[in-house]
Every structure is written in structure tokens, then in C-alpha cells.
Design a protein that fits this description.
It is a single chain. This protein is mainly α. Helix content is 54%, strand content 11%. It has a two-stranded antiparallel sheet.
């Protein structure tokens, strides 16, 4: 990926070790955030099922399809 392309912005993610810095394009960063949201949602859904809560199967499919289209 070229860094001189117009419209490309970068985000810097740092760990405790500065040598482990990672530079990501905004689109990649947004994609990672979307993945992390889905993981959190799956963990919450699993927890709800273990507690006897949750939503119907078909309703879950509709919600998942809608999120994946975003």
C-alpha cells in the first residue's frame, strides 16, 4: 500500500514495547474494530445462553445478516 495516496490516513497502535508499533490504514483499523465487536457479541450471546437467556434463532440470523451488510 502506498502512503502517499490521497485519502489514506493511518492510525498508530502501540503496545508497551515501542518496537511493536503497528501502523494500519483507517479501513483496516475499522475492520479490526468490527471483528472485535462481533467477538464481544458472540461472547455475550454465549453467556446469555448459559444463563437461559437470549433470542430466537431466526431473529439472531436477521440481526447477524444486517450487521454483516454494514
Amino acid at each position: 500500500m502506498r502512503t502517499d495516496e490521497p485519502g489514506i490516513r493511518f492510525a498508530m497502535l502501540n503496545s508497551r514495547d515501542p518496537s511493536a508499533s503497528v501502523v494500519l490504514a483507517d479501513a483496516e483499523n475499522a475492520s479490526l474494530m468490527g471483528v472485535s465487536e462481533l467477538i464481544r457479541d458472540l461472547q455475550l450471546a454465549k453467556q446469555q445462553l448459559e444463563n437461559g437467556e437470549g433470542i430466537e434463532h431466526e431473529k439472531a440470523h436477521v440481526q447477524i445478516r444486517a450487521r454483516l451488510r454494514r
